[in-house]
Amino acid sequence: MEDNDDVIKYFHKIPDRLVFAFSSSLATEFLPLLNKYRLAINEQITGYTFEFAETVAQKMIGVYNYASLPDIKRHAILSTLYAAVKLNRWAAMGLFDKMLTGVKEEQEAYAIAAGLREDVDCYMRLYDRSPKKDLHPAIQVVWELCEKKERERREKLSTLADLFS
């Protein structure tokens, strides 16, 4: 099994123009590598400086923009989400918001919504930064799920507070 740190390090050594070409012209072959990178980011990113979140986000914006498959776009957005949230980097969060509100195509919206649903706890940290009305309807469903979970969390906290008062 490859070390997550090595996956991240070697991925960032690939010149951007090649990564972008892979995400466009060799998307099917590139998909397993990008998935491995996304998983490594999710597991290992906390070991990096918080500025690295912007490095991830900038590279993933390029991947997203050149992507020819919806799953490539999903991995790019999720990688950005993980980096932004886990390193608590506001600039990267803004880039994530911009990517998410820019989703317009049906297939990519459903792929991205599925990814956000799989890691809804992470998305819950940022969901309310983008108004529901600015999101694709498929992503709005996940936004609503986050809203429901947040409401339930607040109700539990209120109940606990009432018990102790």
Short descriptors:
165 residues; mainly alpha; 77% helix; 0% strand
Percent helix among the residues?
Answer: over 70%
The low-pLDDT segments are none
Radius of gyration: 17 Å
The beta-strand count equals: 0
Largest sheet: none
Number of helical elements: 9
What integer is the average pLDDT? 95
- Our estimate of the beta-strand percent is under 5%
The outline comes out as globular
Distance between the termini: 52 Å
When the domains are counted, the total is: 1
User: What structural class do the secondary elements suggest?
Assistant: mainly alpha
Order of helices and strands: HHHHHHHHH
Could you describe the 3D structure shown?
The longest helix is centred in the last third of the chain and has 28 residues, at 137-164. The protein is globular. Helix 2 packs across helix 3, helix 5 (70-86) runs antiparallel to helix 6 and helix 5 crosses helix 7. With 165 residues, it is an all-alpha fold. It is built from nine helices and no strands. The termini are far apart. It has one domain (4-164). The mean pLDDT is 95. It has helices at residues 4-13, 16-25, 27-44, 52-66, 70-86, 90-101, 106-118, 120-123, 137-164.
